[in-house]
UniProtKB/TrEMBL annotation:
Pathway: Lipid metabolism; fatty acid biosynthesis
Recorded family membership: Belongs to the thiolase-like superfamily. FabH family.
Signal peptide (from-to): none
The record's note on its domains: The last Arg residue of the ACP-binding site is essential for the weak association between ACP/AcpP and FabH.
EC number per UniProt: 2.3.1.180
GO CC field: cytoplasm
Top-tier EC class: transferase
ACP-binding: region residues: 255-259
Primary role: Catalyzes the condensation reaction of fatty acid synthesis by the addition to an acyl acceptor of two carbons from malonyl-ACP. Catalyzes the first condensation reaction which initiates fatty acid synthesis and may therefore play a role in governing the total rate of fatty acid production. Possesses both acetoacetyl-ACP synthase and acetyl transacylase activities. Its substrate specificity determines the biosynthesis of branched-chain and/or straight-chain of fatty acids.
Residue span(s) of domain Beta-ketoacyl-[acyl-carrier-protein] synthase III N-terminal: 104-184
Name the UniProt record assigns to this protein: Beta-ketoacyl-[acyl-carrier-protein] synthase III
Domain Beta-ketoacyl-[acyl-carrier-protein] synthase III C-terminal per the UniProt entry, residue ranges: 238-326
Subunit structure: Homodimer.
Length: 343
């Protein structure tokens, strides 16, 4: 028994923030952001919009793509849940009409979607669920310090979702081989210090530096870790599947920085034209990054039969990779240049 990808959908909030707009308030230039990250614009939620709102839109599109009205479980990968408690997954499932369906969150930052995929495959393989809706959604702009040029330039909001069903290992879309890893030794490289039990127990509610309520990122160190971890992780997945880099048609890597992906492709011996990217339009959307990328890549860059190498890296530190043959799906990809209508 295997788990097979059978539906895909994405959604972006309508508000676009360009590099030029960021430069009005930050000590940076549009050209610096574009040349050092590949990002030209990103989407952000408007006041009052939360991660679950984005997740519901992407989830609905993925269910439609699969032709499903029910699933056996909902997994929401997010690092920006609506509230610290409870998890946002149950509310998302209910709003999708998935009554009393098991639902929970996976918090693994930018690796969250790959961790969620492995979780979904596990639920199906163990016979717990016959299908899973996996959503990656983030309103992470709410956790980014608007005055910090290192992070405010990089992150954006969005959502993407996949549907998995029980299937055969030899079917296109089958997910079998994963490599997952984590290293808590470097957890401080990407962290939001306040808000959890550590600072509350030490200083009480609301104390400490306001900047501690936002993401702190040691950009250069994270960059180096990202390239090395994704290189090793993808090599392990290729080895496990008996494939080599020349078998890979598409490198669908986490969209954190286009230079990270170029460095990764070079280290794997993959030509640059195998990289698919939408980072110029969406920035780094953490757990939403991979499904949003797959969704937009179906617009001509990803065709049935392609061997797709998926890899992600993020806070934790954490990383994960998998390889699959792209299935024939009915997808209506998000239009990166236009506002999407909510449904
Ligand atoms: N505009 C102008 N200068 C900036 C800047 C910005 N937006 N952001 C950082 N700088 C400055 C730094 O302050 C530093 O200045 P200094 O030399 O005077 O100290 C200089 O640029 C170089 O900083 P560095 O961090 O080495 O730059 P970089 O080329 O590595 O690019 C990032 C910065 C954040 C784009 C890059 O490190 C990165 O992408 N890191 C990984 C991000 C990531 O993957 N995060 C999420 C994990 S999934």
């Amino acid at each position: 028994m295997s788990a097979v990808v059978c539906g895909l959908g994405g959604w972006l909030p309508p508000t676009i923030v360009t590099n030029e707009e960021l430069c009005d308030r930050l000590d940076t230039t549009p050209e610096w952001i574009r040349s050092r990250t590949g990002i030209i614009e990103r989407r952000v939620v408007s006041s009052g919009t939360a991660t679950s709102d984005l997740a519901v839109e992407a989830g609905r599109r993925a269910l439609r793509s699969a032709g499903f009205s029910t699933v056996g479980a909902v997994v929401l990968a997010t690092t920006s849940p609506d509230r610290l408690c409870p998890a946002s997954g149950p509310e998302v499932a209910t709003r999708l009409g998935l009554v009393e369906t098991p639902a929970f969150d996976v918090d693994s930052a930018c690796s969250g979607f790959v961790y969620g995929l492995a979780t979904g495959v596990g639920l199906i393989s163990a016979g717990v669920s016959d299908s899973v809706l996996l959503i990656g959604a983030e309103a992470f702009s709410t956790l980014v310090n608007p005055a910090d040029r290192t992070t405010a330039t990089v992150f954006g909001d969005g959502a993407g979702a996949l549907v998995l069903r029980r299937g055969r290992p030899d079917e296109p879309g089958s997910l079998d081989a994963f490599d997952l890893g984590a290293d808590g030794e470097h957890s401080d490289l990407l962290a939001i210090p306040a808000g959890g039990s550590r600072q509350r127990s030490a200083t009480g509610l609301g104390h400490g530096d306001e900047a501690d309520w936002y993401l702190h990122m040691a950009g250069r160190a994270v960059y180096q870790q990202a390239v090395a971890r994704m290189r090793d992780s993808t090599r392990r997945v290729l080895e496990r599947t008996g494939c080599s880099a020349s078998d890979v048609d598409v490198l669908a890597g986490h969209q954190a920085n286009i230079r990270i992906l170029e460095a990764l492709a070079e280290r794997l011996g993959l030509p640059g034209d195998r990289i698919v990217s939408n980072i110029d339009r969406v920035g780094n959307t953490l757990a939403a990054s991979i499904p949003l990328l797959l969704d937009t890549a179906t617009n001509g860059n990803l065709i049935p039969g392609d061997r797709v190498l998926i890899t992600a890296f993020g806070a934790g530190l954490s990383w994960g990779s998998t390889l699959l043959t792209w299935p024939d799906l009915f997808v209506q990809p998000v239009d990166l240049s236009a506002e999407e209508e909510t449904t």
